[in-house]
Amino acid sequence: xxxxxxxxxxxxxxxxxxxxxxxxxxxxxxxxxxxxxxxxxxxxxxxxxxxxxxxxxxxxxxxxxxxxxxxxxxxxxxxxxxxxxxxxxxxxxxxxxxxxxxxxxxxxxxxxxxxxxxxxxxxxxxxxxxxxxxxxxxxxxxxxxxxxxxxxxxxxxxxxxxxxxxxxxxxxxxxxxxxxxxxxxxxxxxxxxxxxxxxxxxxxxxxxxxxxxxxxxxxxxxxxxxxxxxxxxxxxxxxxxxxxxxxxxxxxxxxxxxxxxxxxxxxxxxxxxxxxxxxxxxxxxxxxxxxxxxxxxxxxxxxxxxxxxxxxxxxxxxxxxxxxxxxxxx
Length: 330
Description:
This protein is of the alpha/beta class. It has a single domain (12-20, 69-119, 141-328), classed as UDP-N-acetylmuramoyl-L-alanine:D-glutamate ligase. It is built from eleven helices and 14 strands. The chain has helices spanning 30-36, 48-60, 70-80, 95-106, 152-156, 173-188, 199-204, 206-213, 224-231, 279-292, 297-311, and strands spanning 12-17, 21-27, 43-45, 64-68, 85-92, 109-116, 121-127, 133-138, 158-164, 191-195, 219-223, 245-248, 254-258, 261-265. Helix 9 links the parallel strand 11 and strand 12 (245-248). The protein is globular and about 50 Å long.
């Protein structure tokens, strides 16, 4: 089942709008995670109490620091595969903010970033011994992205606009900015890609999410837990919201669903799992690459699974390796 080619040759193949969160990646023991009172495997905003505990924990361990945010990870991986990508977000006027911008630019991603006075957003990414990741969020100014900061010309010059349910949670300027970007994309023929992001987020913003999805998207990503949280065990129900749904099934592989049928492939076997953070995002980067190469759905899924299998062998959500012609390698 080949993929249709993009409608036109615009400057950017993929533009992401994202919470601009710098990942502070810390390997922790289960006992340390329990003391923080964070739900394992999920993403939650930090209270002043557990933020202080996390800051102490980061001084105790030697954290890895890198630009994060789920849609950011997607375009990071897509850029490494050769796609032309851009980023929209908001950072603070501090070292984390400037490092975030510079890191993306060094990886050939054009940045359309608002810089606000205050702290940049941080995501404490806690890796437990079972390779599960738990996120504690200190948003800083990252949610202060306003609709007037979304460039109409940028959206119009992008084949796809990609964002996630993370950008819809809460009642913040970035929620309205993301909706404005979506509405702009619809007016100028830019396709919409959307990631369900996190089952806790789905349940916390369910009505807002359903209202948004009722307007439909062109490509919908979910993992197994997220798909079930949205619409139960019949994944074909995702077609209420899109004509192409991709479900990441972990060790069971991945599934693509269209009105004309399904494609499914198995996962790569990985023995030495170190960190599951970024697996889904790197999968999506590979799937996008396959789509833009007009490869069959099975090959798009296979590329995605290959990248996901490789990223979980290391700590961190982003690979620094640039790959050309990955479809000829796997």
